[in-house]
Amino acid sequence: MALIKDRKLAADNWQLLEAAADGAALAIPDSGDVLVSLPEWKASREWLLSRSGRVGVWLTGADEPADIASDLAHFALIAIRFANFADGRGYSIARLLRERYGWRGELRAVGDVQRDQLYYLARCGFDAFALREGEDPQVALTAFNDFSEAYQTSVDRPNPLFRRRESAGTL
Amino acid sequence: MYIYDEIDQRLVDERVAQFRDQTRRFLAGSLSEDDFRPLRLQNGLYIQRYAPMLRIAIPYGMLATRQLRALAHIARTYDRGYGHFSTRQNLQLNWPALENVPEILAELAKVQMHAIQTSGNCIRNITADHFAGIAPDEIVDPLVWCEILRQWSTFHPEFAYLPRKFKIAVSGATEDRAAIQVHDIGLQAVRNDEGEIGFRVLVGGGLGRTPIIGAFINEFVPWPHLLTYLEAILRVYNRYGRRDNKFKARIKILVKDRTPAGFRDEVEAEWAHIKGGPATLTSSEVERIAKRFTRPTYESLDALSSSYVLALGRDTKFAAWARRNVHPHRVPGYAAVTLSLKKTGVPPGDATSEQMEAVADLADAYSFGELRVTHEQNLLLADVRQSDLYTIWQQAQALGLSTANIGMITNIIACPGGDFCSLANAKSIPVAEAIQRRFDDIDYVYDIGELDLNISGCMNSCGHHHVGHIGILGVDKQGAEFYQISIGGAQGVQASLGKVLGPSVSQDEVPDLIEKLINVYLERRESEAERFIDVVRRIGLEPFKENVYGAHQGSKARGRQLAAA
Question: Which among A91, B218, B350, B538 is placed 20 to 30 Å from B198, CA to CA?
Answer without folding.
Answer: A91
